[in-house]
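Example record

Each entry pairs one chain with its bound ligand, 2-acetamido-2-deoxy-beta-D-glucopyranose.
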Amino acid sequence: MKDRLSLMAALSESMLTVNLLLSVFSLPGTFADCGSIKPVVRITTPKKIEALSGSCLEILCIYDTKDTRYNSNRTIYGVWIKGGHKILPIDGDVFNSSGLNNSYSLNIIGNLKEKNCTTLFPDLNTSYTDKYRFRIENWPFRATACDDPLDIEVKDSPWSPSINISVGDLKEHQSVTISCSALTPCPHSPPELTWNLQQDSEGRTEKNTDGTLTTKIQETITLSDTHDGYKIICFARYPAKGGSKTEETKFTLSVAYAPKDTSASISPSGLVSAGSWVELSCSSRAKPPASFTWFWNSKHGAFNVSVGQVYSFNDTEGGEYYCEATNDLGTQRSSVIFLSVKDVPVIGLHIILKILGTVMLCSTLVIFECCFRFSNKSKKKQKTQPISTVMETKP
Ligand SMILES: *[C@@H]1O[C@H](CO)[C@@H](O)[C@H](O)[C@H]1NC(C)=O
Ligand SMILES: *[C@@H]1O[C@H](CO)[C@@H](O)[C@H](O)[C@H]1NC(C)=O
Ligand SMILES: *[C@@H]1O[C@H](CO)[C@@H](O)[C@H](O)[C@H]1NC(C)=O
Ligand SMILES: *[C@@H]1O[C@H](CO)[C@@H](O)[C@H](O)[C@H]1NC(C)=O
Ligand SMILES: *[C@@H]1O[C@H](CO)[C@@H](O)[C@H](O)[C@H]1NC(C)=O
Ligand SMILES: *[C@@H]1O[C@H](CO)[C@@H](O)[C@H](O)[C@H]1NC(C)=O
Ligand SMILES: *[C@@H]1O[C@H](CO)[C@@H](O)[C@H](O)[C@H]1NC(C)=O
Ligand SMILES: *[C@@H]1O[C@H](CO)[C@@H](O)[C@H](O)[C@H]1NC(C)=O
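Structure tokens for the complex follow.
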């Protein structure tokens, strides 16, 4: 039975070799895959992983095999093969969890008996950039996860963090969660994140769906018009051998808001003479920009008299005018402009005072006239001098 099993194992490997030879010929220089043979070992890791030189790299890894020859009661060696184009004989650099032939420093920290092949590279440099294959040796069962090559790229400079906002279109009064996250190949010395928003907590390292890790800080804020145009800057400082390395990302908030500070102005200012040219102008702060409507207040209510920022007309009547600024998010009304026209009294207190003045003037004149006539009559009776003479001698 045992002999048969090992024969099967040998057979499966030789079949692989045949297939791999074919694929090697067709794709010279690329990494060998399993060809048409279904690989008996599969691993789950990120397909491609980036790392920083002078720092570490932890690769979360699990392997699986349905092969009946696999027995976790026997010794299991995990092997990473760096580079190479052939599965048998192995032509890449070998790291063996037995501790032998470890030309590159790495460490399988997962428990192989639990099918955990999690691996730590404690200190990388750019010469680690390569494709790696995982191989399980559980004598007599041996198989390489040829369909799951792991692509490692070691870079000298780190990655810019990324700023994310929970919603796409930002509007005032909206509560949004803003986060800054940075790739974290080495969870043992994660990047330190700082930004120019309030910072309540330390960064937390999380696992992404693709198996890579990111460190993240976040803040929930309620947006207002003052956030529009605000530039968020987030820094990621990666600890590394020979000095930490920092990258930054900027993101400018664009927040839509209803019209604010709506005001109306008039030109020329002050009293205008009837029939002269008047220009009313409306202004407002709004995003997106507001459109304007002009209203004239009459005793029958407000009339929509014009649309557009500027309303110019020949003023004959005077009156009260105001404008409204409107965009998708709301409407705001300006204060009222009182337009009074010379000689044509129209407005409130002004009119009353004018009328009152006129009435008083008239009545004074009438009274004076009456008094004058009365005194004239009595003076005629007394035969005194004409009033004009009296007035001349007075000063
Ligand atoms: C491994 O060993 C345990 C206890 O010795 C035994 O119960 C189990 O069946 C063995 N597993 C295999 C796959 O041989
Ligand atoms: C890994 O080490 C074990 C134990 O020394 C050895 O039997 C096996 O052949 C090695 N594998 C490779 C690919 O070097
Ligand atoms: C170590 O690698 C060398 C060359 O790759 C090989 O000749 C030797 O057999 C390997 N030793 C073990 C224990 O795998
Ligand atoms: C594998 O081992 C690593 C290191 O011990 C651990 O962090 C991880 O959670 C393990 N994965 C699983 C699926 O158990
Ligand atoms: C990269 O690391 C390897 C193994 O640790 C070492 O042999 C090599 O000299 C290093 N290369 C550089 C450029 O530091
Ligand atoms: C950030 O946003 C991008 C696209 O907007 C999305 O693909 C990504 O998953 C987000 N990342 C996080 C950490 O939320
Ligand atoms: C406005 O009134 C002035 C003078 O009363 C006149 O000359 C001008 O043509 C008028 N303009 C319009 C557009 O009615
Ligand atoms: C004002 O009148 C214009 C033209 O008649 C019209 O297009 C606009 O919708 C009106 N605006 C309002 C706020 O009533």
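The domain at 257-342 is CATH 2.60.40.10 (Immunoglobulin-like).
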